Amino acid sequence: xxxxxxxxxxxxxxxxxxxxxxxxxxxxxxxxxxxxxxxxxxxxxxxxxxxxxxxxxxxxxxxxxxxxxxxxxxxxxxxxxxxxxxxxxxxxxxxxxxxxxxxxxxxxxxxxxxxxxxxxxxxxxxxxxxxxxxxxxxxxxxxxxxxxxxxxxxxxxxxxxxxxxxxxxxxxxxxxxxxxxxxxxxxxxxxxxxxxxxxxx
Length: 201
Description:
Blueprint lengths: L5 E5 L6 E12 L3 E10 L5 E9 L2 E9 L2 E9 L4 E3 L3 E4 L2 E10 L2 E3 L1 E3 L3 E8 L3 E8 L4 E8 L4 E3 L3 E3 L4 E9 L2 E3 L3 E3 L3 E8 L7
Parallel strand pairs: 5-12, 13-20
Antiparallel strand pairs: 1-2, 2-3, 3-4, 5-6, 7-11, 8-9, 9-10, 9-12, 13-14, 15-19, 16-17, 17-18, 17-20
């Protein structure tokens, strides 16, 4: 295993905890990762020899839900890392929210990675926003994919491809907004009507 280019350490000279550039060093160990080398503090420039030890990462089974399907994969974690329901975990291509944890044959609210048998999670980098769209003589349900922090504003137009919808109400939790905005992850439902395009003759 190649030595890292930098490590986050507490500097013995200035007391700052921050990145230290690795000047030279080597990594060894089977049960744990041991780094021995010389580092330079990016805050004060102090140079010193260090030896660090950390547990070798383990692979934990992950069942990841996205839209209407689930995919089995694994996630690399430190054995002592605590997994908690409702907290975020990083993915190689985004992030996810933990929805359930199985440890020792039962569901738990939190557990160290070393005793986790499976993590259930749902992707959190995109969410579906439900819309009720008034088409004149009928109301139809639509969905649009959005980033969790994307804002929907009363009075704005949402482009659904073949249809453009003018937002006139947004349902958030137990209240309805008739003005203002809300983020995609807060929204229960958006209410609007189709905007007819004007065509010139």
